[in-house]
Amino acid sequence: MSASIRNSVILTHWGLTDNEVRCDLSTDIRMYGCWGRNARLWKDNHLPCFVPGKDTVVASTAGDYDNSVAPFGYQVSLLVCILIYTLFLPRGKVTWDKQYTLFFAGGVRYDDVSYSHGVRQTLMMLFSQHPGFKLIDTGERGGYTQYMADFGRSTFCLAATGAGWGVRLKLALMHGCIPVIIADNVQMPFEDVLPYQDFAVHVREHALYRLPEVLDAILSTEGLVKRMQINVSCIWRYFTWRDPQARAIDALICSLRRKMTGGRLIPVMDWSTCNLHCDE
């Protein structure tokens, strides 16, 4: 990528903001988000992988697939969709009484200190046996067949950093689960225009040990979980591209419009209608 192209607005899935720290390490470069050519671009030209305020982190297209488990975003044939909608599970209906407080399943790699910046390893060591938490090391089990279903069975779902951008944030939202984001110095998709504080939980890496305390505080605040769940049932549309209700393109256009105003435009989400108002 030439420097002249890099001066354009880049649409990326990976909103890493601390490139100087994580792209210039002598350890496995791939685990720090710059991936191959971008890593060399940084080291050779001092060009970052993502520039906050200029570039836009967009929702992944991963997860826009046929999924008979997710209550939102069916991508099946029209006939099957009509049958599901009419006979079994109307769109937008989810079970809000959950079996687990927190769910995560994914690779942990205890022998690789660079992977996930130590987040997944720390979480597993601290909370793998914590009551109400279901944390699965898929590397140990060689896969996990209940992966999708357990998103829908959980109140909170971890969207913890791994080797780079991931799809768990999107999967949590599409299954009616409140995402718990643990990814320091990483901007989330459309974070510049969507009110993350209304539908997600951010936990800093240095505060991982306080995770149960953070979740308990939310659970004990009257009406807060229900309000966030209702917002989740609205906001998932802004993270998908293919569904008939998809609004990711609306979020993208809003982000670009905000950049054209130098950040002066402040978008407002109308939760009663699920509409993102993006006017000055």
TrEMBL record:
- Protein name according to UniProt: Exostosin GT47 domain-containing protein
Question: How is the protein disposed in the membrane?
Answer: Single-pass type II membrane protein
According to the entry, every stretch annotated as the Exostosin GT47 domain falls at 94-217
Q: GO terms for CC? A: Golgi membrane
Taxonomic placement? Eukaryota, Viridiplantae, Chlorophyta, core chlorophytes, Trebouxiophyceae
The main location is Golgi
Pfam families in the record: Exostosin_GT47
Give the originating organism: Coccomyxa subellipsoidea (strain C-169)
InterPro entries per UniProt: Exostosin, Exostosin_GT47
In terms of domain of life, where is this protein from?
A: Eukaryota
Keyword vocabulary terms for this entry: Golgi apparatus
